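USER:
Make up one protein:

ASSISTANT:
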Amino acid sequence: MTRLRAHLLVVCVLSLLAGACAGLKQSKPILPVREYEKMIVGRLDADYVGTDNCVARCHKHDKITDDFKHSVHGEQIKQETGLPLVNCESCHGPGSLAIAGIGDDVALNDREGKKCNTSTFLDIKNLPPQAQSLICLKCHSAASIPALAHWNASPHALNDVSCFDCHKLHQGPQQKVSRDEMAELCYGCHPEVKAQNRLFSHHPVMEKKMACDDCHDPHGSVQDNLLRGSTPKETCTRCHMEKQGPFVYEHADVTENCANCHSPHGSVNNYLLNAAMPFLCLQCHAGHILDTTPTTPGVKQLFTNRCTDCHSQIHGTDIPVPAITGPGTMRQ
């Protein structure tokens, strides 16, 4: 009898567990994003009224409204596309409370100085950087994949940089930084790079022939320093294709990381080299010894000319170097 009770107890427990697991698998509706925005504002009685209703009661935001209509958000994302409709309330939250105190007569509102109460919107400027980015990511986490796939773990996100630090949505219809302005924007946080770009040998960033995002992906990357591509060499050979290879005879140190020899942002040496030749090469290679007089082989001299005078294909070659013998030749 005791065994039967124990068996029945086990069966009941397993049945309850199975029922609980089945309940966990059921999909439960979550509140729409709009409801959470109301909670953040702190007024659940706020409601969405649409951009046209907001801007129709005063002309204060006419310039911003016109710029927005001609922006990527205003023109490319339309309601008929099935994509999320982007308007003022998509970022600022519900606007019914903001226009509750002003009437429909625009001229009267202008004469009496009545304006919308912007304090009822989301306080975007005082939100933490991560919360500011979430306002954008609620749409762009799906619409901008894979561009933002690495954002949450990127150095920018981890160092409290938000989308609004780079994207100025109210400064005109161009809602991302232009190539001409990009360098100065990046220099605001990376002044050491600005100094390096002013050195004698540099990539043509100052000359506006390049921009920072030609090499770096500001939204995140699988590489260090937000480099594009899978390896540093892949990043560099997007422009320097003749160095890509593969070669039969490869220079081992340059097969993956060009920065072993080059300083990408600027250098005091030719060709962005980290050090002048032959000192750059001597960091890894022993110097060549030259027999100055064939009759007195004990007298030798270190050969310290530019290595590339003889080794011209330093990135790799398909042609072997012929053996050279005889008095007065270089040997290592």
Summary: The longest strand covers residues 288-291. The chain has three domains: 33-125, 149-228, 241-331.
